[in-house]
Write the structure tokens for this entry.
Amino acid sequence: MNKKLVAALSGGAVVLMALSGCGGDDSETKTNDWAKKVCDQVQPQLTKIADANTSIQQATSDSSKPADVQKTDSAAFQSISDAYKSLGTAVNGAGAPPVVDGEQTQQEAVKELNATSASYAGLKQKVDALDTKDQASFADGLKGVADELDKLSKNGDQALQKLQSGDVGKAMAKQPGCQKPTPSGGGAAAPAGESAS
């Protein structure tokens, strides 16, 4: 019942994985300094998101009870929401990137990251409100959450893509903090009660 949710989450992760960039050469010190300032704060958030996605996948593969799935998904959405908010703070704190329209690009990216954070917080509230005592109702509600998540993963990454284009994108791609993380096992996003069997 949660497979669509997992698929949608995978799509959402792709949006953020764009932060891992696509390689390239750039020797401008200012651009590299800006990228380092952002990327040093990005890695923990990317890991948090990857761990949250893993916890949702584990809850699905374990054929967990609705109450357990709800608890895991709720914690995961909260974690993802927090991560996007922290990313917005990181981009905001780094100042405008040293490129044409840098200030506008930065402001749009921050606005987008904060909006994504709010959207995940909204998904958490919806999951929290689902009736876990009625399996069919819960499955229907979860499908609705997955549909919203799917839309969220397909929309709203234009500002981030702009932020990661050109010289700034090349500089970000070279920073270790903006490299795609490996999930640490999912424990961070799923509090007590979630054990793989």
About this structure: The radius of gyration is 18 Å. The CA atoms of residues 20 and 178 lie 5 Å apart. Residues 3-16+31-178 form one domain.
